[in-house]
Amino acid sequence: MDSDIDRLTQWMLHSAKEINRLHARLHETFVRRDTDERFREEWKAACAEFHARYNDLAFPGGYEVAFQRIVAGDSDAIEAALCFLECRPYFVRSGYMFKKLLRKARQAPLTTDQALRLAVVQYRQDEWRVLRRARNSAQTFSAADGSPAAAFAH
């Protein structure tokens, strides 16, 4: 089972790199698109490739149907969602995906092991939220009165 999780995690991390590469290409070509018709065509091709591949790269089995599959109890989709939540791949829109996958995973029928994994993800998310609030409060306090609270901001 762990090797399946490892393979899925590696697939997600590789897919994130590919999405980032495609997204960077889109921006590279955007800068030059108005200088020459050839560059405009390059940009159009980059846009088309990004949009054509995003759905399949963002989530195994397709991002567009992922949430319905999770809530319906599709075991492969649930496992993929948990792997995504655990490894937190970084690419355009992945933060939104994380939040939505977390909500949908809470609604999904989980095994005991999956429920434990989701609880760990939720704990880490809650811990991050507390630390972020503390850091933001320290920065606000420090900026307001010049106190040494800035030491806690980093």
Automatic annotation (TrEMBL):
The name this protein carries in UniProt is Uncharacterized protein
Q: Which organism is it from?
A: Roseateles amylovorans
